[in-house]
Structure formats: C-alpha cells, structure tokens
Design a protein that fits this description.
The chain is mainly alpha-helical and about 160 residues long. About 65% of the residues lie in helices and about 0% in strands. It has one domain. It is built from seven helices and no strands. Helix 3 packs antiparallel against helix 4, helix 3 runs antiparallel to helix 7 and helix 4 packs across helix 6.
C-alpha cells in the first residue's frame, strides 16, 4: 500500500513538471506576432552574450584599465546597436502586453551607448551587472530560436 502512494506521488510530480503551467511568451506577451517575438528573442540573446563576454573578460589576466575601457566602449556600442533594433520592433508589439511594458522601461532606462558604457565601467563589483540583469530578465520572456549549441564550459568551445 505504501508503494502505491509513492508511485502516485511520483506520477503527479512528473505530470506537474510536464504540464503547460510554465510562464512562456504566450502568457506574458499575448497578441504579439510570433515573428516579432522571435526577432526580439534573438536580439536579446545576442545582447546577453555580449554582456557576458564583457563580464568574463574583466577578470582575464593582463586586462589593463586601458584595455578594459576599450572593451567597454566596443561592448557599449554593440549593445546600443542591438537596443536600437529592439526599439524598432517595439511599435509592432501589443502595447497592453507585459513584455511590451517591460521593454519600454528597458528602452527608457538604457537610451544610448553612453548609458551602457557608464554601467559597464561602474565599480568593480557592479560593472555591467545592472544592464545584464535587465537583458536576461527580458530574454527569459521571449523565445530565442537561434541555432546555437554551445558546450557548458568555455574551455571546450572551438
């Protein structure tokens, strides 16, 4: 009798994990065109990777303040370019959706390259963390359909 109870709990646990109750872009962004959400997901995915590359490079050996400033300038320029792509997609989104509202706040908070550069060059412990956190939180709301399979550890990347 005890085994039957545990088996039932396992089945219910598995069913709850596989149920469509997870928060997806359809729940957060209803009424938005799927192609626009995929484009936004791709741009946010690229921004997330750019920000992570900068955060990783900050701790490399031999990274002088001059090299760090040049890297921050280059990363800020690239992030601002992707941000402009998101701004171009925003009019195509349903203004009543949660994703459009969060994207609007993100675009207002990070208006240009100078804002990204200032965040990247912030204090040692916080540099790049604010913008990267907001980018990742937006990226989690939309589908990222880019074809990319990367190993977990950078050591094994080509």
């Amino acid at each position: 009798m005890k085994r039957g109870g545990w088996a039932l709990l396992r089945v219910l646990g598995l069913a709850s994990c596989l149920s469509p109750g997870w928060l997806h872009a359809d729940d957060v962004a209803p009424g938005n065109p799927p192609k626009v959400l995929e484009s936004a997901g791709a741009l946010l995915g690229e921004m997330k990777e750019l920000g992570q590359e900068y955060l990783d490079a900050r701790y490399k050996r031999g990274m002088t303040p001059e090299k760090l400033a040049a890297l921050a300038q280059r990363s800020a320029r690239q992030l601002a370019g992707k941000r402009d792509g998101l701004a171009a997609l925003r009019p195509q989104l349903d203004p009543a959706s949660e994703f459009a509202a969060r994207l609007g706040k993100f675009l207002a908070r990070w208006p240009d390259e100078a804002a990204f550069r200032q965040d990247l060059l912030a204090e040692e412990a916080e540099g790049g963390r604010k913008s990267q956190g907001e980018i990742v939180s937006l990226w989690l709301l939309v589908p990222d359909q880019r074809k990319s399979l990367k190993p977990l550890f950078p050591l094994f990347r080509p």
